[in-house]
Design goal:
7 helices, Rna Polymerase Sigma Factor, Chain: A, 2 domains, elongated, disordered N terminus
């Protein structure tokens, strides 16, 4: 099977219209299909992420960086766009759903008393998002610190810090409610 667009071992001349045309004709539908499969067949999202990927290619070429294999570069860039999308939008949504669960049973001994769900939710929405996410993952979902770190793309120490700050924020907010 002959490829319509031949990879070159030297940097591709993106300055020519023919080079761009060949790249777009061959790569664009392939990158779109790659992204589409990874975003649950959401065409609008796949189009957006593919567009971001192509814009990144243009910006990279304009910056003077040499790209030896543009197709491989596009697939890697598309993969990064998909990962970034899930980091930004999917994780917080899934974790925020834990607010609808019975959170009173998920409170650690550090809180020293059982709270009703309304009181807990009222405090949780007032702390910073990353602290809230870390607390919910650890206490409501039962994730270990190393799992949370991997999930959030942070170090174990950073997650421990988020948990400590989150518990401190919760204690402060809860003590304000008692007064």
């Amino acid at each position: 099977m002959a490829a319509r667009w031949k990879h070159e071992s030297k940097p591709v001349g993106f300055r020519s219209a023919d080079g761009w045309s060949a790249l777009l004709t061959d790569a664009l539908p392939r990158v779109f299909g790659f992204v589409l499969l990874r975003v649950g067949m959401d065409r609008a999202l796949a189009e957006d992420l593919t567009q971001e990927t192509m814009a990144a290619l243009v910006n990279t070429v304009r910056s003077g960086e040499e790209i030896i294999d543009p197709l491989a570069w596009l697939f890697v860039a598309a993969r990064h766009r998909v990962i970034d999308h899930y980091r930004r939008y999917e994780r917080p949504d899934r974790i925020e759903q834990a607010l609808d669960d019975d959170l009173a049973d998920a409170i650690d001994a550090d809180f020293e008393r059982v709270l009703d769900q309304d009181e807990l939710e009222a405090c949780l929405v007032r702390i910073p998002a990353m602290q809230r996410i870390a607390l919910l993952m650890h206490y409501a979902e039962g994730f270990r610190i190393t799992e949370i770190a991997t999930y959030l793309g942070r170090t174990d120490r950073a997650v421990e810090s988020l948990l400590t700050r989150g518990r401190t924020s919760m204690r402060r907010l809860l003590s304000e409610k008692e007064v």
